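> call design_seq(struct)
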């Protein structure tokens, strides 16, 4: 296994639960499996996954127990390495190694990764994505929404919670006045509310035709989120998936939508399995990134492509990076992101 560190400057600083960051740091992972070399990416995000140090240590442990010669020869040597990587403890590290394995498997089978996940999904050339229109005042929010619609987006995501509920309601109604009823309007509160304020917000957002509010309450308030359901705006959980295993949320009937970040749940394979499990529970999956580099971003696109009739996903994040590991394999046009059709991931990174 070849593990190489990288650091990529962001186009703009990124606010996280652990503070503001100016660059995304992580590791590329290359692994020989079934006669192919697969590539993966492990890019921890403070507040969501393990630390960069813990990620490297986990990858080193996995490399020490992997039998890459056996894995390349007949696919039998990767098991101990994968078992070494606990998705609950070191999800980014597992994502890196699992993605490399998946890339190699799909390459060996001669199919694109999304078709490797689900052969019955057919040919998917692109999936819908949402545009993020931020947390600006009313006029700037409306302008951003109009620009997004002109660019072909049919789903808009607006940040809320930094202002009063009434002020955010005015912003959202102003957006709704200039966009078609067919445009899906989503809001992300990033756990800004207490229970009483969240109830007020849901009522206010319903008047603007909001589809769902993402993470209105603290990540650990499963019961509070359950109580918010059925009030005219769907409840989507994101940060809660860093606190609880998804099955806990599904069993608690705490969400209408699950926001699935493959880097946070331990890999594209885990994300796809969780998406299908959510569907079985009547919960819709939406796939997003943690502002990853091109390898992980492309893997997330494949996960979304393998979900039949997937809703618009949060995958249009390439422009958040000032630089990348390789050319973008999934360009965005007319509100949709392209899905690579070559075997494997469809990303070529020069490791030599």
């Amino acid at each position: 296994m070849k593990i190489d560190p990288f650091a990529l400057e962001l186009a703009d600083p990124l606010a996280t639960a652990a503070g503001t960051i100016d660059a995304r740091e992580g590791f590329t992972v290359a692994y020989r499996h079934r006669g192919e070399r697969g590539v993966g990416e492990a890019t921890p995000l403070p507040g969501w996954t393990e630390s960069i140090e813990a990620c490297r240590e986990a990858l080193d442990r996995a490399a020490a127990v992997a039998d890459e010669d056996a894995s390349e020869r007949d696919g039998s040597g990767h098991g101990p390495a994968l078992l070494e990587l606990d998705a609950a403890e070191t999800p980014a590290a597992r994502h890196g190694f699992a993605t490399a394995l998946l890339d190699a498997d799909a390459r060996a089978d001669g199919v694109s990764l999304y078709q490797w996940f689900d052969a019955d999904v057919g040919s998917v050339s692109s999936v819908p994505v949402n545009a993020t229109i931020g947390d600006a005042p009313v006029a700037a929010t409306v302008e951003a929404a109009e620009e997004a619609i002109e660019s072909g987006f049919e789903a808009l995501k607006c940040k809320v919670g930094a202002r009063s509920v009434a002020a955010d309601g005015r912003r959202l109604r102003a957006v709704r006045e200039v966009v078609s009823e067919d445009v899906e309007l989503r809001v992300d509160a990033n756990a800004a509310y207490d229970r009483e304020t969240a109830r007020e917000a849901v009522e206010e957002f319903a008047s603007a035709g909001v589809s769902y509010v993402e993470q209105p309450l603290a990540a650990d308030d499963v019961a509070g989120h359950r109580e918010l359901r059925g009030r005219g705006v769907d409840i989507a959980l994101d940060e809660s998936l860093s606190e609880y295993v998804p099955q806990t949320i599904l069993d608690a009937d705490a969400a209408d939508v699950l926001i699935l970040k493959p880097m946070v749940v331990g890999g594209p394979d885990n994300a796809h399995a969780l998406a299908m499990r959510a569907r079985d529970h009547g919960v819709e999956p939406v796939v997003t990134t943690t502002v990853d580099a091109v390898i992980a971003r492309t893997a997330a696109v494949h996960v979304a492509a393998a979900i039949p009739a997937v809703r618009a996903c949060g995958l249009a994040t390439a422009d958040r990076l000032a630089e990348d590991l390789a050319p973008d394999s999934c360009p965005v046009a007319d509100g949709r992101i392209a899905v690579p059709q070559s075997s494997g991931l469809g990303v070529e990174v020069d490791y030599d």
